[in-house]
Specification:
Blueprint (H helix, E strand, L loop, with lengths): L8 E2 L4 E5 L5 E6 L1 H7 L2 E5 L6 E2 L4 E7 L3 E5 L4 E6 L2 H4 L3 H4 L8 E5 L9 H8 L1
Length: 126
Amino acid sequence: MSSVPNELQYTNEHEWVSPTKDEKTFRIGITDFAQGALGDIVYIQLPKIGSTVIAGSVCGEIESTKSVSEIYSPLTGKIIAINGELDSAPEAINADPYGSGWIAEIAIDGQVPTLLSAEEYSKLTA
C-alpha cells in the first residue's frame, strides 16, 4: 500500500501539494503511488524558475525504465524554486517522494483550488 501523508493535499493526476512557511507558496511533487507505478525514475524535466504554470496543465516530465509521464501543475502561479538535486539524482523521487524527491515550489496569486484530502486520494488509489 502507498504512503499518503495526512498533512498534504492531492490531485487526481497523482501530484501532492504542501504549504510552506509563506502562505502563498506551495511545494509540489508526485505521490508514492505514482513513483511506484512508474518504477525506477531515470530522468526528470523540471519546470523553469520564473515560468507561469496553470493548474491542470503540463509543467514537466518524468522518465522511468517503464515509461514517460507528464507532471501536471496542481496550482496556478509562478515557479519560484526547483529541486535541482533531481538533475543528477532523479531516483530521489523513488526513495523519498514526499521529502528529498520534491519537484518545485509555486507562488500562487489567488486562492488554493480544492484538492483531494489524504482520505479521498487513498480511495482513488485503492
